[in-house]
Amino acid sequence: SVEDRHVVFQALNDSMASLYVTGDAEKIQAAYHRTLDTALTLQGPDENRTLTQLAADVLTDMLIGGVTPDGTGTGVAAQVNVTVPVLTLLGKSEEPGYLAGYGPIDPDTARRLAAGAPSFTRLLTHPETGVVLSMGRDTYKVPAALKKWLEVRDETCTFPGCRRSAKRSDVDHSVEWQHGGQTDAMNLAHLCPYHHAVKSYTRWTPRHLGDGRIEWTSPAGYRYIVEPSADMRPPKHPKPAPRPPAPVVDVWNLDPEPKDPDNQSPF
């Protein structure tokens, strides 16, 4: 009956999953034939995918990309969060990523999605704390965990000489969002309301140098470097010096301890 319409998602192994749809027979059949017909048009001598593989790719592409009810143009596109450790993205770690609603995904898939696959929101995480450090251009709003991380890093307004608490300051995009600035730790810093206005309406210009340091250039061209209140880099533990090997002792041929002549028995 029509009341039995439903969609079921099932996670599988090896970064795979299944999607089951139950609905009106004519609609399901029409959707199936449209998927198959589109897949058939993609076959050719240079196409290595099988027809069933093409059909699966066509269906997911249409669902993710979005179509209008009349089948033309682009409708509402799906948005899926993929969380990627920053060292995995850089190729320096094989730690898995995390796909919202599914679970862990292999590093290669995580890197591919983070590289700009449509409809996926990339979340880069700190290698030590797991805090989200970057939302890229996907959102203007700063996540709560990143706000807390920035509050610990900055502690105060980051304008030269200002000591107003970060708790009473704004989290500002150093390169304005509308000018292409990203929502990540390397483009965000605390500014009190006064210095926020100074930065917005004068020629004072900040530039992130890395590790939380910010270089400010005044309208006259003078430069000032503001250090972070907390070093947020992963700690570097020096390797301890190797311990010298213990001496080899032959327990069966130990020299007898010398006798104390004062305690020797006369007998």
UniProtKB/TrEMBL annotation:
GO molecular function: endonuclease activity; nucleic acid binding; zinc ion binding
Region (Disordered): 229-267
Signal sequence bounds: none
Keyword Protease found: no
Keyword annotations of the record: Endonuclease, Hydrolase, Nuclease
HNH nuclease domain mapped to chain residues: 145-197
InterPro entries: DUF222 (IPR003870), HNH (IPR002711), HNH_nuc (IPR003615)
Record-linked Gene3D superfamilies: 1.10.30.50
Biased composition (Basic and acidic residues): 256-267
Family recorded in the similarity comment: Belongs to the Rv1128c/1148c/1588c/1702c/1945/3466 family.
Name of the molecule in the record: HNH endonuclease
Organism this protein belongs to: Cryobacterium zhongshanensis
